[in-house]
Amino acid sequence: MTVIDPVILNLAVALGLGLLIGAERERRKGSGPLRSPAGIRTFAVTSLAGAISFLVGGQTMLAITTAGIIALIALAYWRGHEEDPGLTTEIALTATALLGGLSMQHPALAGGLAVTVAIVLAAKSRLHRFVADILTENELEDALLFAGATLVILPLVPDRPMGPYSAFNPHAIWVVVILIMAISAAGYVAVRLLGARFGLPVSGLASGFISSTATIAAMGARAAKANDVLAAAVAGAVLSTVATIVQMALVLASTSMATLISLAFPLICAGIAATVYGTAFTLLTLRQKNEAELQSGRAFSLWTAFVFALTLSVILVASAALQDQFGENGIIFAAAIAGFADTHSAAVSVASLVASGKLAASDALLPILAGLSTNTISKIILAATSGGLSFAARVIPGLILVAVAAWAGAFYGLVAG
Known about the structure:
Blueprint: H1 6-27, H2 40-80, H3 88-102, H4 107-122, H5 124-134, H6 137-153, H7 170-194, H8 196-225, H9 230-255, H10 257-286, H11 302-326, H12 331-339, H13 343-355, H14 365-386, H15 388-416
Helix pairs in contact: 1-2, 1-3, 1-4, 2-3, 3-4, 7-8, 7-11, 8-9, 8-10, 8-14, 9-10, 9-13, 9-15, 10-15, 11-12, 12-13, 12-14, 13-14, 14-15
């Protein structure tokens, strides 16, 4: 069986990516005396030149070849920039030379980047229309704020336990701030695409898999900004608890199947309660005769994200203080304290004890439900502080209903058993 030399395959990748990008540029090349000088042949040869130069002299030769190509591009641009002041083709040609060289070491990466470049080039009109006509000034500012919070501030925040009782990690708290911003922005985009009646419930359910608590705070901020999306925001907030139940079932299944079996009925009851309550408000939004007016304001509220992070920090410190005061008085107390911050971590810690044989599966029921209940308290506090009285009055009963359904399912299972 004949084995093809890898070098030949890499050269084929270089030729292919040059033809791909060049084909897109050929369609925009134009005709007549004002046509662009670079088309499919130029891009294909440029990519091969980058590949051959790397093959012959490594990175040094690739740098020399790329510098020569840049010099030729600069000369061509100097001669014809008055007719076509754009630099897109010139930059794409330079990138093609570098991609050709990259294909000799990482052909898959080079091919993927070439496809990305071709897509960006082909989407010219759509991108221009999006930035000029669809994206608002406030949305652009929000995108820059999110980028700064994620790419600039996050790497600089200390990643170690700090504060009273070393209860909170500034890096983890800032991640929560970013999470709130991202969930709120996702809801904003969903509203722009699907309308408030569909967008908020859908985004609430999806965001619940990231953090139901954060989703409730983000939905509260959305409801506080526009009262006409109140029902949809409530639906999204309560439906996020469906994701909490599903996610808990998944983590329990991966940790201890016996624990999941013992909690199956309570989780089913809680999931049904959350689904029914959230669906009721979703149907209420669908019955509205007029679609809620789309807001052209901010994608997220930075103040809401800060308030959420501050509230979570207070809960963490209070939980640590209680644990320091009373000590480890049983698994139920420890799980309840952990549940204030994250119900899944409490459930996993208890399920791990079951998996290691230190706790019976039947004894895991009460600690996990205690963590679920204290987590509900955290959600109630955030619902009350983020969305105002109208939002809280509608969400809090649903949260209580979910917790009561879980306990009712557990009680029924104990009685029936």
